[in-house]
Amino acid sequence: MMPRLALLLTLTVLAAAGPPGLRAQSARELVASGLAAYRAVRYDGAVQQLRQALDVEGDDALPDSVRATAYAYLAAAEYYRGRADAAATATRQALLTDPAYRPDTLVFPPDVTDAFESVRRRTRYVRIRAPADTIVQPGGRGYPVRLYVSAAHELTAALIPEDGKPRVFYDGAVRDSADIVWPALERGARSPTGRFVLEIRSRLPAGGTRVVRLPLEALPIRADTLAQPAPPADSLFLAERAARRSRVPSASLALLASAATMLLPTVVAKDGVGTRTRYALGASLGVAGIVAFFTGSRPDPLPANAATNRALMDAWQRESDAVRAENERRRGRAALRIVAGPPATTDPSR
After folding, report:
1. How many domains does the chain fold into?
2. Nearest to 116 by CA among 125, 105, 126
3. What is the pLDDT of residue 108?
4. In terms of domains, do 55 and 102 share one?
């Protein structure tokens, strides 16, 4: 029973794998086969295997480091087949994939490396290496970009907003590689937000330019701000004048004195003059009482309390001004999140 089960499992695995030689090779396996054919001086087979490997796309495609090497071997195989134009095209593809690539002189013979160098000196390829997603802080270095070139040449780097004028922030020669920086958050300048394109223009020897564009998006990171302090509560303020005294007693006394004066016995006066004087005095006292009732006594100011209240308001105003200034500083120093997309090259030779 067990031998039959083992045989059945073996047949199932072989059927799933397919007949030998018919299973599709991966891109890396095709490269390995192409390199083996090249070393065995089977250049036609090497070209076929390497081209198949380089044609693989999607998730199974070769990474750039392996892809550049595959193109270099393809160029060498085409060179030994006597196809100089095809060898030059493969060399340019290797440099376009990785401008910093150089063939290993311990692997390739001098005639192949010389042919590679002859093509390389006439190319103007640039590769951009920049952070895919990073935070740029105020006062920091900015957004760093590293450029790799296939050969020394003059180039310019400019930042182009969606609806604005290009701004060149690098213009000069690059020999092998160069580090350039987009000063995204310059002191005193408005923080850039929105979509941009980082454009690298290489000037070609025969005229024209080759352009590499890197799409960027700058997203502001809002700074946390402080809450404004609440004004002092009413209960903290002191009375700035003394409490009013009651006006009823003084007015009552004046009216009572007026009535008493007018009711004095006539014996007080020796003649009619006394009577007139008595009534005049009583009237005066009555008017004084009425005036005292309506005017009352003015409350006395309390300077110490007024000074305390002013100090309380001044302290609150200073705190409010300090918070407002700090919030302005924080808003002016907001960080930026910069997200980069895939670069694209415009080649005038195509």
Report:
1. 3
2. 105
3. 94
4. yes
Predicted local distance difference test score (pLDDT) of residue 156 = 93
Residue 3 lies in a domain: no
Q: pTM of this prediction?
A: 0.59
The parent domain of residue 47 ranges over 24-120
The answer to whether position 288 is within a domain reads yes
| More confident: 318 or 138 | 318
Report pLDDT digits (tens) over 205-215: 777 888 999 99
State the CATH number of the domain containing residue 212: 2.60.40.730
Give strand pairing partners of 161: 196
